[in-house]
Amino acid sequence: MPELPKKKVGIVACSGEELAEGTVTRLAALKVLEQLRPGDTVTICLPLFLAGGEGDRAFARFYPTVAIDGCDKRCAARATEMYSAKPAASVVVTEIVAEAGLEKPVGLRRLNDAGQRAVDITSARVAGQVDSLLDRHWNRRTGAFTDESSTPAEAQTPVGATCSCGSGIPVQTVDVRGRGVTLVGLPLIFQQLHEAGRRPEESVTRDLLETVKIYNPIPSDAEADYARALLRDYAAYCAGQEVRP
Amino acid sequence: MKDDRKVVIVPCSGIGKAYGTVSREAAYAVTLDLRPAESQLVALSLLVLGDDAARAAVSENLAITIDGCKLACATKMVKESGGTVAQEVAVLDVYRRYKQFKPQGIAELNEGGQQLAYAMAEEIAATVDALREGEERAADA
User: Which of A102, A103, B11, B122 is the most buried (most CB within 10 A)?
Assistant: First the structure.
């Protein structure tokens, strides 16, 4: 199997500009993206679900997504579900503040102490959700993930947050028993298999299907149909690559 | 422009680049510091969700949008929400005129980013004044 596109978790913050809790969501998201789980997370600006293209709208289908909302209007969670896919998890800052017994966050531009504390608690909770979504379990006694294939957060190098703005997730529509099905990430998966020297033969079908299933829901009773369609389109992809100068 | 009508300021929600933070800071500088009585901040996330009050604010008032990248989410969303964009401000365009203010940092803008945001806010404040004067003249005519 070729090196797969690494499974990551998408973070979508409401960033609500008119509430201090919106500032909390933005800073909590950035803390997860830059410090707590930089190797495991990506983000996208919420408006791109409407203002962007099909690839942007595929974001929450490609990545299991955590929505971070400032208030009970839950713009991030609801808009993500409306325009992309239901978030895998979500948090609401006002609820976290109440649970933690914090004072109300104040300061749109410069958060007060309660707001800073809310950022810390919110980001820690989101980081835990990221681990859960990646099937990672943190052992507090050993200070390490129990899954040895994972990279502990402490071992991850802090990075600047990068967004998916404009890049989008590549999608491709395949014909599965006469029905067009749009699969996110398929062009990238084809490219990686081809670069790995995998020929469009029966032996590649299982790897192809398993890779596609990482990012797309495929009904178990339709797997054979999908496998045939994927192999056919992969053959066409390979043929297209071979005729290119 | 009647006194109860304000110019709506809509910054983008850019979270992956410093330009998004500049857009946010400039919007705060206009609506909180420079023209608090004449302008109103509208959160982009509310427009994305289709919030009635946010849609009413942009459809009943002139809007100035501030975008941090070429995708122009703020401008597109205001138009999508039935609003009139009186002025589109692109952070990159303004930065080209203030090359000495190089913005860095997303969670916390550097000094250059703060200066760029404020320079941009002063230009936007002047636009707010011009828009209000224009509407007043139109109302008097």
Answer: B11
